[in-house]
Write a structure and sequence with these properties.
five-stranded parallel beta sheet; three-stranded antiparallel beta sheet; Rossmann fold; Arc Repressor Mutant, subunit A; 11 helices; Enolase-like, domain 1; 3 domains; alpha/beta; single chain
Amino acid sequence: MKIGILWAGPFGEQMINHISLAGFGDRIVAVYELTPEKVPGGARPGEIWEDPTAFLPLDLPEARCDLLLVLGVQGALGVLVPEIARSWRARAVIFAIDDRGMAPDARRSIGEDLAESRIHAEFPEPFCILSGSRNDLVRAFAEQFGRPAFRATVDPATRRITAITVLRDTPCGTASAAAAKLQGLPCEPDTILRRCYEEHHNEEAEHCCLAEMDPLYPVMQEAGDLLKDAFFSSAGLPTTKDLMLRTLATAGGEMAVDELKARVVSPQVQWEGPVKGCTTGRTVDLYLAELAEEGKVEIAGGRVRLRKDSST
C-alpha cells in the first residue's frame, strides 16, 4: 500500500512523524504541506470551490498513491482534496478531524465529489476513533493506527500490571507512550485512570494529544476516554460501557439519555468519590450507538432501553 499525505501545522507534523517511525515509513511516497500560502492568487473559499483545478498549488509533486491521508489541513483548503486525490490516483482518503478548524467546508460535497470518482472517503472525528472499515485500504491502516487496543498481563498475586502490549496505537503515539507509563502500576481503576489521563493530556509529552479540548467541542476528552477504556478493558476492569449497562439495569432497564449521561459523565479528571465512566457526553453517544449496533440497547425518543435478551 502506497500512502500520500497532505498536512499542515503541529497536528500534521506529529502524525507524520509517528506514523513514519512506527511502521509505515517505507509506504509513504509523497508528503506535501498544504497551507493557504500555497494557493495561487490567494483565492477566497468561494473561488476555490467554483474551480478547484485552477487553484492547485504550483509546486504540488507528481505522485501515485493508494491511500491519501489528510492531516491538519484547515477549512476551505479541504475543497482541494478531491482534485489532489484524483491527481495522485488515490483509491481511498482518510480526512482526519481533531478540531473545528480541520472540519472541511462543504464536507458532504467533498465526500460526494470523491465518491463520484470512486474514491472511498472517511472523516474520523477524532482520528483515534478509527477502528475498521469496509474499505480494504482504510482497514489495513486501521489495523495499526486508530482506536487504541491493548493486551495487559496482571500478576494475580500482586495485582500489578506486569506487561502491556499495544495491539493498535493511536496515530499520534499517545497510546504506546501511555502504555509505557502504566506498566508496573497496581491494577486499580483510580490509579490507572489518573495516570492515563495525565499522560494523554500532558502538553510536555512528545506524544501528547493535540485534539481540541473546548467544552463545546470536547474531542480531546473523547480521545482520552477511548484510551482509558481500552486500558480498562485489557486489564479486566469495568469500562464505561459496562457502567452504562449496569446503570440501566439498576434503573429498571430504561431511562432518558440525558439522565444516563448525568450518571456516568464527570467533566473533571481528578474525581472525588466513586469513579465515573467518562469525561464527555460525546463518549456516551458513541458507546450508545455501538451498544445499539451490538443489539444490547434500543434508543428512541431521547430514551435508552436495555434489550430483554441482552446480557449486562
